[in-house]
Amino acid sequence: MSSPIMKASGLEVHQATDVTDSQITLEADVVVVGSGAGGAVAAYELARQGKRVIILEAGPYVPSKAFTEDFTDSLQTLYQDHGGQANSSGDLLVLQGACVGGSTVVNGCVCFRTPDFILQDWQRDFGLSELTEAELGPYFDEVERNLSVHDNGEHEIARHGQVIREGARKLGWSTKPLRRNIRQCGLTGHCLSGCKTERKQSMLVTYLPWAQAYGAEIYADTRVEKVLTEGGRASGVEAVVTGQDGIVVASLTVRAPRVVLAAGAVQTPVLLLKSGLANRSGQVGKNFACHPSLLVAARYPQPIYPWRGALLGVHIDEFMHPDKGGFILEDGGFGIVEMTMLAEPGTGEPFMEYMANARDLAGLVTLIHDHNVGTISWDGERKQIDYQLSEADFPSMKRAIKAAARLHLASGATEVYVPASDRRIIRSEDDIDDQVDSLENAPQHLRMVSYHPQGTCRMGADPLQSVVKANGETHDVAGLYVADASLLPTSIIVNPQITVYALATRIARQMA
Ligand SMILES: Cc1cc2nc3c(=O)[nH]c(=O)nc-3n(C[C@H](O)[C@H](O)[C@H](O)COP(=O)(O)OP(=O)(O)OC[C@H]3O[C@@H](n4cnc5c(N)ncnc54)[C@H](O)[C@@H]3O)c2cc1C
């Protein structure tokens, strides 16, 4: 490829359009696969230590000024499989970013630290005795400082958050402002389409330019196909550079004694499976968890304008601990496309009525602490995501729907739409048990969305039960590391970006 070209946002990126050779070979101290939460942070930390770092990113480089604030466009340009990535039964949409900056470019900015009760599970069940709250605290402090994480101010709680907060107060439920990584939020509500004004502190505008300032090089449009080893140690990767038309324009090899996989919890295990590496435990691709979410929308007697103001304002943490229910509710705004894609709008007349009243809708997003029951596999040609909500998790899902319905009603809603295929409507407290208890845990019954795939290369002390050690290195292959959401041995119930940033920082520091 030719020399990097200075792009509008200030990030220098090699792209398929720059390619002049059909075979490219590069050398580095560390090659990082994926430029999202884990990859960008690891790259910055390693470059800062003086390592020659190359970052390979399968997705395109889309500078912020090219973001359109139109969700249908963004799905095409910024998301994995153009927003169509789903489980094999088609009832779970698995959303991931696939562009320079990864999912952090399109995420909702919500920031939570890993709850201590989750870390305690990891210490007890996976031998991760090092990963205590005291050990991770300084990493959380640091990434939160770097990314301007703060409690939403009053002006960042939109109308939908205000009504929900009032309802929670009536019910006596604990509600808190969400924390977000954003500077002077423009309150446009377009987070899921990327932040045009670069207020969201995604990797695109923070750790990637910082890594580049220390000499890291970024290659977009470059999909890693195989991890290379020599004498049982990692020795680099093979990749293909693909233009926007899908045509391969070059093959690219990076020779490096250290390889960091940060391609996300779906692609990292696929890469290991394709490479036939690090799977002595048989756990690569197993243990997929995803916080299957529902968008429970409700109609209010007054205008809410769910597309106005900050996307996410407050959350209900009353039921977070598994002993108290094992779920959280986040108030969520949405635009017209998200309204139909993520909720259950019905068809025909009901659809027309739902959309005609769009102005009066508010939404609650449910997150549950699901078990790691899914699998990512590779059949030689394509990946497959097998995930069905487990019977053990169905009660938490139902508890979350009931709580969302109760909260909407207490907040003044007149109709609550259960996102089930037979589109159930709750109009009073008396309807809640009837409508929710009769839901079935069957394929295609609930419209689920995952924003948080996790767990497919889990960390642990036992090489026969886990893929990666607590320091991020795989048990089986020296010099091969994982630094993304695939590490998390259990689902963490809360939005995971801060956990990924903190773990990636720790892994890179220990590696350096
Ligand atoms: C719509 C949406 C909203 C979200 N909202 C929140 C939120 O509010 N708060 C929160 O905490 N979390 C949120 N998340 C989740 C959060 O962003 C992710 O948990 C986090 O970014 C995961 O980091 P990662 O490094 O594992 O993967 P990613 O950030 O997804 O990065 C992986 C990167 O690797 C690239 N890649 C994949 N395969 C290859 C390959 N073979 N070769 C090279 N590159 C490859 C991908 O294109 C991608 O860019 C959201 C996610 C989405 C999709």
Largest sheet: 7 strands, antiparallel
Based on secondary structure, the structural category is alpha/beta
Number of E-state strands:
24
- Helical segment count: 12
Based on the coordinates given, report the CATH architecture of the domain at 84-93 and 109-128 and 147-193 and 288-450: 2-Layer Sandwich
Q: Ligands bound here?
A: flavin-adenine dinucleotide
Strand order of the largest sheet: 8-16-17-18-15-21-22
Instruction: State the CATH class of the domain at 84-93 and 109-128 and 147-193 and 288-450.
Output: Alpha Beta
Q: Given the C-alpha coordinates, what overall shape results? A: globular
Q: In whole angstroms, how far apart are the ends?
A: 28 Å
| CATH fold annotation of the domain at 84-93 and 109-128 and 147-193 and 288-450 | Glucose Oxidase, domain 3
For the residues shown, what is the average pLDDT?
95
Percent of residues in beta strands: 15-25%
Radius of gyration: 22 Å
Helix content: 25-40%
Poorly predicted runs: 2-8
